[in-house]
Amino acid sequence: MKKESFPVSAEKFKVALQYCFPQHGLSRLVGWLAASNNRFISQTFINTFASSFGITLEEAERGEFTAYKSFNDFFTRTLKAEARPLDLDPKSFVSPVDGAVSQQGDVESGTIVQAKGHNYSVATLLGGDPLLAEPFEGGKFTTIYLSPRDYHRIHMPVTGTLTKMTYVPGKLFSVNPATTRHVPGLFARNERLVCHFDTAFGEMVMVLVGATIVAAIETVWAGQVTPPTGKNTFTWHYKGDKAITLDKGQEMGLFKLGSTVIMLMPKNAVAFDENYQAESVVRMGARIGSLTENA
Fold it and tell me: Where is this site: Cleavage (non-hydrolytic) (predicted)?
């Protein structure tokens, strides 16, 4: 009897390959090259990348490709002040990044949506302790994907005081839409930083998710945190004279190469605008929702 064969989609095949190659080794190698100040290496990377993704420097503070010392310097480029106007309404909740909305919605039964048919655990995302997920039950979440061509600095959606930050080790799968559709629990499997803030509406969490060839994640208070020096989960606490308050729109961190930001808010804290939906394109500083009357 002839054995039946089943076609495998190109998308699934590309995702399957990610299980096979050395994710961390490749990412660290690319990170080393991206940090190089060698003029030939940096300009080759910059020009090839800009051409491939159609990147121009019209909004950048430095408007010439030759003005950047390394690929990382170019990739994390700052923008002109007027390039991203901040919604100053005290009740507005703004986008922390440039990107595309992957998902947004309610936290239900301790889980959030990754993609159609894929939910994952909030507790696992935040580092494994179920108590960490409790403040967000019935609340809101949103996931924003930063493509390679996007601005890669991360800003505050509202004013908040940092209380703690946790580094969670993990894989380095790509976080592009195709991988999101096919790798279960992707964001709770990848390396990530979990940043907890006290805000006017209660606790807010911003999760900065690492990915394939993301050379590093930095915060403005701790500098470069990934790649880590160890392989264990670790938490830093910021209390008393170590407390750090960041205003709405203020920079809080950056990615060296593309990734994803996930935000969690408690119940009755934030209402997303009607036009803020999956696949929407957002810009840092633009309103995506509002604080509710209960906030």
Answer: 258-259
